[in-house]
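dumping this here before i forget
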Amino acid sequence: MTIKRMDNILIVVDDLEAVKAFFIALGLRLEGETTVEGPLVGNLIGLKDVRATLAMLRTPDGLGIELDKFHTPDAIRFGPVNAPVNTLGLRRVMFAVDGIDTVVARMLEHGAELIGEMQYENTYNMAYIRGPEGIIVALAEQLPKT
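structure:
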């Protein structure tokens, strides 16, 4: 048995609409949204009295970003909202993009904060941005080979 692919990444959020709008502005498409609850869900994820709204977004190549807003039990915030990149745990998601300057400008218009940007050798232009709820997104544009 082998792993076939990575399907999705879960991000638990408080403001589902703001985070959903952020990722849609970035270029993901909303695949669906639903509310789940009950003992079957609770047994699967190890919580009692679960009720959550889920939104699944997908990149053009099919990778999913699942956003979950827990209504019960309340979500638990672990650490500061704007934790630095070296904080232990999952800290960012990265997307390959075309036209990085345009993407960064569009995301800044949607309230993102630019953390930093650089050119990595002669291979990539990169930028880190922070979106709603402190979510860090890295963007990488491959440079043409010379």
